[in-house]
């Protein structure tokens, strides 16, 4: 705890937020995952008097993403209060977002989320100057191509190749590469994307596909009905893509391919690391095959 107190003093000393203010003694509390109740490594909620913050050790591209894309701060990402370099790595003191995630979405909250994603992607649409920052397209494309070897099916491989072709040619913008429903918080009318360990200038469907692909109507950790998925997709098209001249049919085709790719994730994990240990393998294998057959028939996936 002494190290945490020293880190806190270092952060406070470099932040204008605390300039000239009396600083209360901080209380550090671990942050816990909703899915299994385990503590996040290197993430704490800090309470100092009535003020609250998130303190976290930056992972992967997170520090660079905040420095590059969110300095100065943007409404769709937590503000950086202070940062400090230590022997253990970079630490970020972030704005605390007192919001609710999208594990159980409603249409108004989905619309808030889509508005935030659209504002972000419009801000960085085809921003070639920042294409080499964060989790780059070349890194992400290489990672996705590597997954193909673990699909174990000619049908899945065929449509995954079509997806890879789309991934390479579609317009790019800033994307959160792991925008699952617990990585987006709704605080009133504001929606905020959190946990930016992987993000960069990537093909535009990355965010909306990841956010909507894994929800089910009943009995699932992520909930989302087909109607809610279509609502989110159409709102996203109107706000983020139509202004850039992308046709609706092209959007439907692109998002369908990215939704199919999301369904392949647990197939790849099961085939690579062991089906017996992966409870999601069979459900996602059935979903991936169903989606591939729908693509064969030329049907949209939402």
Low-confidence stretches: none
Radius of gyration: 20 Å
Helix amount? 40-55%
Number of helices: 9
Q: Could you say which overall geometry the principal axes of the C-alpha atoms support? A: globular
What proportion of the residues form beta strands (DSSP E)? 15-25%
How far the N terminus sits from the C terminus, by CA atoms, comes to 50 Å
Strands of the widest sheet, in order across it, are: 1-2-3-5-4
- Alpha-beta content class: alpha+beta
Query: N-to-C SSE series?
Result: HEEEHEEHHHEEEEHHHH
What characterizes the major β-sheet? 5 strands, antiparallel
Give the total of beta strands: 9
Task: Describe the 3D structure.
This protein is globular. The chain has a five-stranded antiparallel sheet, covered by helices on one side. It has a two-stranded antiparallel sheet with strand order 6-9. The protein has a two-stranded antiparallel sheet with strand order 7-8. The chain is of the alpha+beta class. The protein is built from nine helices and nine strands.
Task: Briefly summarize what is shown.
The protein has 302 residues and is α+β, with helices and mostly antiparallel strands. It is 44% helix and 18% strand.
Which key phrases capture this entry?
302 residues; 9 helices; alpha+beta; two-stranded antiparallel sheet; single chain
What order do the helices and strands come in, and which of them pair?
Blueprint: H1 2-14, E1 27-32, E2 39-48, E3 51-57, H2 62-69, E4 80-86, E5 89-95, H3 107-123, H4 137-147, H5 154-169, E6 172-176, E7 184-187, E8 190-193, E9 199-203, H6 205-213, H7 226-241, H8 248-273, H9 281-296
Helix pairs in contact: 3-7, 5-8, 6-8, 8-9
